Structure prediction request, 57 residues.
Amino acid sequence: MGNLLHYAVVFLVVAVVAAFFGFGGVAGTAMDGARILFWVAIVLFVVSLIASLIRRA
Prediction:
């Protein structure tokens, strides 16, 4: 899951740099990608946490 969060941060940096240089379309697309990757990572973390707790019980 570390790679997923790494890519989310990379997309976020690309979005900020693109917005700084005035590429609004690229910045918006990169920001949407970062947001999606972040939420997918959060959902996978929660599923992993629940599965771990179920195995211990």
